[in-house]
Amino acid sequence: MGRVEMGKNKKGRDAGQPDRQAVLMQAQNYNGRIFSAPDQEKCLDAVQLHQLERAFRDWIDAATRADVRVSRRRIFLIFLLIRYTGAKLNEVLSIDPEKDIDLKRQRVRFGRLQADAGRSARTVQLSETLCHEIKALVTELADTTGTPPMLDVDPGFVRRKFYERAEACGIPKQLGAPEILRKSRAVELMQSNMPLPAVQMLLGHSTPNLTSAYVSFSEDDIQQVTRIFMEKESQRKTSARNTFFGKIQAIHRGDIQALVELLTIDGHTIATVITNGSLQRLGLKVGALITAEVKAPWVIVQKGQTAPGCSADNVLDGVVARINPGKVNTEMIVRLASGTEVCSLMTTRSCRRLGLAEGDPAQVCFNGFAVVLLAE
After folding, report:
1. SS3 assignment, position 252
2. Bigger pLDDT: 344 vs 8
3. What is the rounded distance in angstroms from the CA atom of residue 27 to the CA atom of residue 38?
């Protein structure tokens, strides 16, 4: 699989500064546990994935015969499962929708037959929106054929249809392959800041003890984080660019406000300050899973990783991954060693004054008052 690549700085290293390439490799190595080769160009980006899904929907709408429409809907169901779960083609083709898709709990189970033979199966969370579409597809297939819908389709036939849909929307056919969809889903999730252990569990990778924080999270915790992420991805109801998923480690209650500390699966400690009223209303307690969001304008970027001390409650080390300049404002993306990307929005004048380039070490800082907690 292709590792997520970061921009490389072509300038010489300034005297006294850390080796940028070494810092880059530190951040890349973490993601490399999933993506073992630098070929992200062999993936579909979010726009292409949307185009491919649209091509499948148009293909179904273009069917004039009922039997052809049923056949195309079955292929589309296979596509949706690979597209949003990152499953392998053979995993999807071996499931029984009636036995393996739990629409009430919003889960799909892969490897049931292997589990019966003593090998491990895995469960992947689905969003509510996706579950509604799967239910409609399964119901229509069952009503049309008069039998429970099965996905036991010839893999070669599935591949040919995937290639055809890719070419129909101007994408090289090889990028429509099921394994490329699986890889693209992994990259998409990582770039959207889903915690690495959750991505690994979703893909069926064995999840190593990546950080000391990870031991604090059970498999059920990670499944819940995945469910929260999937719902947010499908609904997009928040304008906040930076999202952290974690577990509350400590609550320090004051007269009016409380300091809440959460530990993310990636091993970052995030501190936030909320009122005691909000603490009670949200029902927060130590050990509870929580989502923390920080809007990009509230994130300050400092040059280097040994910058002078500041009063910010949260200071995280990383490297500059991307800089998107504008006439007035500039967006800067800093990738932490865990692979999490933090977005900062600053004036273009401030960006120039910082003198940062892609690949430079940097720190992102934000105050506890800038962190919004969302209880699920």
Report:
1. strand
2. 344
3. 14
